[in-house]
C-alpha cells in the first residue's frame, strides 16, 4: 500500500516579502527535557494577552534594539498548536532573516514565557513539571528549537500536486512512531494508529488531542514510592546554594559536602542557574536583567536568598549576649 501526498517543501509558503510577514506554529506543547525533569506546556492554560504585540527576537537576545527582528501581529490557539503571524522590521538584518526563512535555511522557533502555576508529577523515575497557567512573552528565531514540532507554516493549500511524491506504508509508520516519541506517547498508541492505517497528518492531530487530554486529567495512577531526598527539589537546592552563598562572605564557615557544588557560583551565576532550571532563557542578558528576572519569576532564587539571610540572622542571634544572664 502507498499513500500519495502533496509535495512537501521546507520553505514556508506563508512568507510575504512585501508585507514582511510569516505565519508559524511556535509551540505544540511537546515535552522538553530540562535539568533533572521533563517540562510540558499545557497549551489550554496559556494566557495570550501579551503575545500579540510581543517582540520577535534573535535567539532570545534582548540586550538592545538590534536584537529585535519584528513583532507578533496576531496569535491564537489552533488544533496544531500555538499559531502566530509575525511582521519583521524593515532593516537589512530583519529582511535577511525573513529571506532565510523563505528559502528554508532558517527553520527553528522558540518562545520565552513566565509560569504562574506548575503541576509537579512523576512518570516512573522521571520527574515532570507541567506549566498549567503560563504567559508567552516573546518569540525567537533559533538554530536549534526545543520543540521539534514548532515550524513556519506552509499555509492551508500546501504545495502543488506532485504525482511523483509517494510515501510508502513503512515510511508512514516510521513517521507515526516519530510523532508518538515527540509527543511522549506510548508504543501501544503508535501501534493502534498504524493498525488503523492512519496517515501522518491524522496521527499528528490525534497526538495533539491525546496531549490535551493528558494535561486535563487531574488524577493519575502511580506506583507508590518513598523518596528520601530529591536532589532536584527546590527546597533542597535552596538549602545547599544558600549555604554556599553564605560561605562566600564567611570564609571560616566549613561547607557541607552537598553545598560544594555551588561554591564556585557568584551571585549572578546562581541567578542564571535558577532561571535555567525554571526554563527561562538568559543567554545574552545583562547581569542586572538576570537578577531582576530571577527575583520576579518562579525561579528558586528568592528561596536561596532567604536561606542565606536566615543563616546570617541565626549567627547574629547566637553572637548576641544574653541580657538575662
What features would you describe in this structure?
- This protein folds into 3 domains: 151 residues, Serine Protease, Human Cytomegalovirus Protease, Chain A; 51 residues; 85 residues, no CATH class.
- With 325 residues, the protein is an alpha+beta fold.
- The protein has 8 helices and 11 strands.
- The N terminus is likely disordered.
- Helix content is 33%, strand content 24%.
- The radius of gyration is 24 Å and the shape is globular.
- Helix 2 packs antiparallel against helix 3, helix 2 packs parallel to helix 4 and helix 6 crosses helix 7.
Order of helices and strands: EEEEEEEHEEEEHHHHHHH
Radius of gyration: 24 Å
Alpha-beta content class? alpha+beta
Q: What separation lies between the terminal Cα atoms?
A: 93 Å
Share of helical residues: 25-40%
Shape: globular
The residue-averaged pLDDT reads 81
Low-confidence stretches are 1-10, 157-165
Estimate nothing, just give the exact number of structural domains: 3
DSSP strand content: 15-25%
* CATH architecture classification name of the largest domain: Alpha-Beta Barrel
CATH level 1 name of the largest domain: Alpha Beta
What is the CATH topology of the largest domain? Answer: Serine Protease, Human Cytomegalovirus Protease, Chain A
Task: Count all strands and give the number.
Answer: 11
User: Biggest sheet, in brief?
Assistant: 9 strands, mixed
With helices defined by DSSP (H or I, 4 residues minimum), what is the helix count?
8
Amino acid at each position: 500500500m502507498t499513500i500519495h501526498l502533496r509535495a512537501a517543501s521546507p520553505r514556508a509558503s506563508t512568507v510575504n516579502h512585501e508585507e514582511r510577514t510569516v505565519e508559524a506554529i511556535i509551540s505544540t506543547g511537546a515535552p522538553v527535557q530540562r535539568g533533572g525533569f521533563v517540562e510540558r506546556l499545557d497549551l489550554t492554560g496559556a494566557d495570550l494577552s501579551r503575545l500579540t504585540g510581543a517582540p520577535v527576537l534573535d535567539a532570545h537576545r534582548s540586550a538592545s534594539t538590534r536584537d529585535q527582528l519584528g513583532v507578533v501581529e496576531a496569535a491564537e490557539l489552533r488544533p496544531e498548536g500555538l499559531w502566530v503571524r509575525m511582521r519583521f522590521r524593515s532593516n537589512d538584518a530583519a529582511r535577511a532573516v525573513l529571506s532565510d526563512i523563505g528559502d528554508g535555511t532558517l527553520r527553528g522557533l522558540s518562545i520565552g514565557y513566565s509560569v504562574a502555576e506548575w503541576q509537579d508529577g512523576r512518570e516512573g523515575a522521571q520527574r515532570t513539571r507541567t506549566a498549567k497557567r503560563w504567559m508567552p512573552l516573546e518569540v525567537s528565531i533559533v538554530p536549534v528549537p526545543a520543540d521539534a514540532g514548532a515550524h513556519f507554516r506552509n499555509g492551508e493549500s500546501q504545495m502543488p500536486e506532485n504525482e511523483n511524491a509517494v510515501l510508502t506504508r513503512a515510511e508512514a509508520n516510521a513517521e507515526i512512531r516519530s510523532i508518538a516519541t515527540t509527543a511522549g506517547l506510548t508504543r501501544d498508541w503508535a501501534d493502534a494508529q498504524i493498525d488503523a492505517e492512519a496517515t501522518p497528518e491524522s496521527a499528528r492531530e490525534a497526538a495533539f488531542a491525546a496531549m490535551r487530554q493528558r494535561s486535563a486529567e487531574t488524577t493519575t495512577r502511580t506506583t507508590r514510592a518513598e523518596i528520601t531526598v530529591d536532589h532536584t527539589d527546590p527546597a533542597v537546592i535552596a538549602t545547599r546554594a544558600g549555604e554556599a552563598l553564605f560561605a562566600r562572605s564567611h570564609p571560616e564557615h566549613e561547607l557541607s559536602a552537598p553545598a560544594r557544588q555551588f561554591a564556585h557560583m557568584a551571585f549572578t551565576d546562581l541567578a542564571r542557574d535558577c532561571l535555567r532550571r525554571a526554563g527561562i532563557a538568559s543567554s545574552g542578558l545583562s547581569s542586572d536583567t538576570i537578577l531582576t528576572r530571577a527575583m520576579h519569576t518562579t525561579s528558586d532564587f528568592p528561596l536561596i536568598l532567604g536561606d542565606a539571610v536566615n543563616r546570617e540572622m541565626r549567627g547574629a542571634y547566637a553572637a548576641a549576649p544574653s541580657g538575662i544572664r
